[in-house]
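Run log, item B.
One chain of 80 residues. Sequence copied directly from the ordering sheet:
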Amino acid sequence: MEIGGYFTTRASANGAAKNEDEIELKYALLGGGIGIFLVISFVVVKICMIRKHIYENELTDTPSRQSQSLREERNRIAQN
């Protein structure tokens, strides 16, 4: 029972517990904002890396390996 009381007790540096909800909300919003920023920046970096990789692959592919679509490739083979 002592352990439950230990984890549920609130204290502040000056001994007074004024505006606890306001302070907790501020830090929750700050943490959420930082998390959202990190997620968005990670997604943007990944998209840029994928685009760069696709662009580099298009430049290095030989014309025989570049085909517009599977359907066109199949039609080309069927005509020969």
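Observations after the first pass:
- The first helix runs from residue 2 to 8.
- DSSP finds three helices and no strands in the chain.
Flagged for discussion on Thursday.
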